[in-house]
Specification:
By secondary structure, this protein is mostly helical. Helices cover about 70% and strands about 0% of the residues. It is elongated.
C-alpha cells in the first residue's frame, strides 16, 4: 500500500503560478518557522514557481508589514553569534552574506554589536569558555586554541595577541 504524503508537504512542493496571497501565505509559513532574509524568502518562492512579479510584490508587502527586515535579522544574528556563541566577526559576516544579506547591512550590524567591545575581548571570552581560565600548558595546547579561534572566525591579530606570538600556529 502506498504511503500518502501529508497535505502540508504536498502543497508546499507543488508548482504554482499562484497569486500574491498564495505567495504571502508561503512566505509567512517560512517566517513562522525561523527568521529569514529577503533573499532566502525570494529563493524559496522561486523554487515554488511563483512569478518574479509575484515574488517582488510579496517581498514589498512583507517589508511594509515589517515581517521582513534584513537589518534587524543581521543585528540579532550578529549579537547571537558574537556575544552568546563566541564567534568572530569573520564568521558572522560569512554566515549573513551566505544568507543573502547585503554587505553594507552586515557591516553595520557587526559594527553595532561590536560597539564598545574589541575583537580581543570576544576572542578571549570564547577561549575561556572552551579551555577555561588557566594558562595553556604548552605549544600544542596553544596551537589547538589558535585553530579553534581561527575556525570560529576571529581575526588572526586578535588571536595572536591573546596567545602570544610564539609558535601558536
Amino acid at each position: 500500500m502506498a504511503r500518502r504524503r501529508s497535505r502540508s508537504i504536498a502543497s508546499e512542493s507543488a508548482p504554482r503560478s499562484g497569486s500574491d496571497g498564495d505567495a504571502r501565505a508561503v512566505a509567512l509559513r517560512l517566517l513562522a518557522r525561523a527568521p529569514r532574509s529577503a533573499a532566502e524568502i525570494e529563493t524559496q518562492l522561486a523554487r515554488r514557481h511563483f512569478t518574479p512579479a509575484t515574488i517582488a510584490d510579496t517581498l514589498l508587502r512583507l517589508r511594509d508589514l515589517r515581517y521582513l527586515d534584513d537589518a534587524a535579522l543581521a543585528r540579532r544574528r550578529a549579537e547571537e553569534l558574537l556575544l552568546r556563541r563566541g564567534h568572530g566577526r569573520l564568521r558572522v559576516a560569512h554566515e549573513l552574506t551566505r544568507r543573502g544579506v547585503a554587505d553594507r547591512v552586515v557591516e553595520a550590524a557587526v559594527a553595532a554589536v561590536m560597539e564598545g567591545r574589541c575583537d580581543v575581548e570576544i576572542a578571549r571570552l570564547a577561549l575561556h569558555r572552551k579551555f577555561g581560565h588557566d594558562p595553556l600548558p604548552d605549544a600544542s595546547a596553544r596551537a589547538r586554541a589558535y585553530r579553534f579561534l581561527i575556525g570560529r572566525g576571529h581575526l588572526a591579530e586578535a588571536v595572536r595577541e591573546i596567545l602570544g606570538d610564539d609558535d601558536s600556529r
